[in-house]
Amino acid sequence: MNSIENVSRRGFLKVGLAAGSFVLAARVIPPPLWADPVADSQPVFNPDLFLAIAPDDTITIIASRSEMGCGSRTGVPLVLADELDADWSRVKIEQAVGDPKYGDQDTDGSHSVRSLFDQMRVTGATARSMLITAAAKEWNVPASECSTEPSLVVHKASGRKLTYGQLAAAAAKVPVPAKESVVLKKRSEWRYIGKDSTLYDLPDIVTGKAQFGMDAKLPGMVYASVEHPPVLGQKVKSYDDSAALKVKGVKQTLTIDSFTPPHAFQPLGGVAVIADNTWAAFQGRQALKVSWDPSPNSVYSSAEFRKTLESVSRQPCKVVRNVGDVDAVFAKGGKIVEAEYYTPHLAHASMEPPVAVAEYRDGKVIAWAPTQGPQAVQATVAKAVGIKPEDVTCHVTLLGGGFGRKSKPDYVAEAAVLSKKLGKPVKVVWSREDDIHFDYFHSVAATYIKAAIGPDGKPTAWLQRSTYPPIASTFDVSAKYALDEMSLGWNNLPYDIPNHRAENGPADAHVRIGWLRSVANIYHAFAIGSFTDELAANAQKDPVEYLLQLIGPPRTVPLQYSKEEEEDGKKYPLETGRWSNVIQLVAEKSGWANRPREKGHAFGIAAHRSFYTYVATVVEVEVDKKGQVQIPNVWTAVDAGTIVSPDNIRNQIEGAAAFGTGLALFGEITVTNGVVDQSNFSDYEVARMPHAPRHTSVYIVESDAPPAGIGEPGLPPFAPALYNAIYAATGKRIRELPLSKTKLT
Q1: Cα separations (Å) of 467 from 34, 520, 531, 733, 742?
Q2: Under the phi-then-psi rule, with left for phi > 0, alpha for psi from -120 to 50, and beta for the rest, what region is 588?
Q3: What is the pLDDT of residue 43?
Q4: Half-sphere exposure of residue 355, counting CA atoms within 13 Å on the CB side?
Q5: Which pLDDT score, from 0 to 100, does residue 9 have?
Q6: Which of 88, 112, 8 lies closest to 51 in space, CA to CA?
Q7: Nearest to 383 by CA among 425, 413, 349
Q8: Single pTM value for the model
Q9: Taking a C-beta distance cutoff of 8 angstroms, is the pair 387, 363 a contact?
Q10: Gap between the Cα atoms of 673 and 511, Å rounded
Q11: Which residues in the chain come in under a pLDDT of 50?
C-alpha cells in the first residue's frame, strides 16, 4: 500500500503535485494552468494515495484508470468505498493524471478491477480501522466496541456517533496499521460489491455535462489536422500548400517528422494544417498537394498476403503447446477432419476519433487527452519533444470509446510536437477517415486445424496452427511470431484430448498492428468454436452435448506459463468445471433443448475463456430467402469470479453482442499497395439497428473466485456462435469473416 501519512496533515491539494493536478483535472481545463496547487486550509485525512476525507464529510477517491464505458472509473472506487463503509452519495471521484506512483494505469486487458480489487479493499479497510481508532480514543472506549455505518463510526453501547468528516483530523494522527493487521469485511457485509450500481458519470453523460477529449480547450489554442503518409513508413518528399493557405481560417502549415523504426507510439509524420477552427483545418488539408517518398510497405496487399498466411499455416510452425504425440496418431490413418479459417484486419472505429490538446512551455508539456494509458502519453510525448517523462502532465478526460486504440498516444504526441514548434497550445483532431486509415489494426490471421476422429466421434488427436503479424512488431521490427499472445485462446485448449499440439507461424507486419477488444481471442475463438461445431455435425451429435463431452470431467488443466503469467496462472487456474457450467446454464436459459430446427431459423453455440472469465453464448438467427440475417436473441452465461457490479457486466456483454455483430457481419479492413481501402462507416460498417440483436439476455454465475476481466470476454464466442447458427439454419459452413463476403442464397 502506498502510504502518504507524512503528508496527511497538510491541506487537501498538497497531497503532492500530481495529486493536485488530478483534482484540477476534474474540471478539464482549470486556471491557473501552470501554477502549483494552492493548499486548502481544511485539515484532511489522507491515509493512502487514493483516498482523502475532508471535514465536510466529502470522501474523495482517486480513479487511476480511464473511463470509456467499461465502468472502471466507478467499479474500482466502489470497492474502496465498500471496505471504507462510505456513504456513496458523499463520494467524489477525481481522475488521476499519469504518474507512476499510481502503479499501472493502463486501462486495457480487462484487468482494472482484477488488478486493483485487493489493493482497494485494503485501502478502504485501513482507513476504516484508523477512523474507528480515532473515535474510540475520542470516546475513551475500546476500539472493539465500535463499528461503522455508512460514513459513520458508531458506539452502540452508548448510542454515540461521529461522522467520518468529524473524525478526519483525529484519524490523520493515527499511525497507518500494517497491511497484515487490517481486517477486511466478510462477503456478507458488503454494501456495494455485487450489487447493481450505475456509472458515477452517468448523470453528466446523459445531460451533456461530461467532458470528453473533444471538449478540451485552452486559451489561445489553435487547431491542427495532419495529412499522414498513405503508406506506413513514407516520408514527405515535397508539398505545395498555396491552395491550403487561401482557405479562410488557415494560418500556416508545418511538417511532422516520420518515426524512427520501430514505430511504437510515435507520430506517423506528415504535414499539419494549422487553423483557428477545426473546419478550416480540415478544408485546408484537403487543398494540400503532397508528394511522398517510397516505402517498402507499398508492396503490401491484403488479398495476396492472405495466401502467404494460409500457406504458412499448412506447414509445421513453432510449437507453443504439446500434449501426447499427434504425429503418431495421424500416421495411423483413419478418419481425418481438416479446416482453415480466416479473419481480416479490423479497425477500432470508436465513437470519438483520436483528439488531444497539448501545450509545450518552458521545457514541460501539459496535455488533455482521451487516453487509456496516461503513462504511455508521458513516455511518448517526452521522447517526441526531448524532455523527461516526469515533465509531461497528462490529464485524462472521458473517452468516447477506446477498444484499445487509445492506448496508443501517437495523436497526443502530434499535438505536443506542434505546440513546441508554434509556441502555443494545439488541438489535434483526427477525422473519421484518419481514424480508419491510420489505425493500429487488429491483425489479419489464418488458422488451420486438423483432427483424427475416433469411433465415438471424438478427436484422438488435434493439431492447430495460427499465423498472423504479431503485436510485438509495433515495438520490434524483427518480430514475426506472436508467442506472447498464445495464451489468448490458443495454447490453453480445455478439451479432454490425449494428443494435442498448438503452433504459431511467422508473419511480417506491413501496417501498424495493435490490440483491439479481446485481441487474438477473436480469431482463435472463431477457429476453435467453429471447428468444434463442425466435429459435432460430423459426429451427428447435438452441439451442446458434444461440446461438454470434449471438455470432459471437472478438472484443472495443466498449463505452462511465462514468468509474466505465472502469478496469474496460479491465481486463475483453467477449471473445466466452470467452463462446462456456463455452457449448461446458457443451454438451459436459451431453451436449447426445444430450439427451432427448421430451414432459415436456428440456434448456434460457442464457449470461450479469456481474461480468466468463462463465457458461453447462444445466438438465434433467422435467414430469409434473400440471405439476409436477423438476430432475434442472444443468450450469454458469464462466470467472471467475484462480481463488483452486475449491471456493468450486463452492459459489457450487451455491448459485446452489438460489437461482435458488426465485426461478424461487416468488419473488414483491406489494403492495396500499402494503402488502406476503407475510409468511413460507408465502407467500414458497424452494426446498425436493423442488424443488431433485438434482445440480449445475460446470466451471471455467482462465484467466490477472484474477480476476472469483463470488458472483453463477451466478444470472442459471439462470431462462432453466430456462424454455427447460420450453418444450422442454412447448411452452409462459413470459415471466414465477415459474413458480407459470403452469399447465403
Answers
A1: 50, 11, 17, 22, 23
A2: alpha
A3: 62
A4: 22
A5: 23
A6: 8
A7: 413
A8: 0.94
A9: yes
A10: 11
A11: 1-41
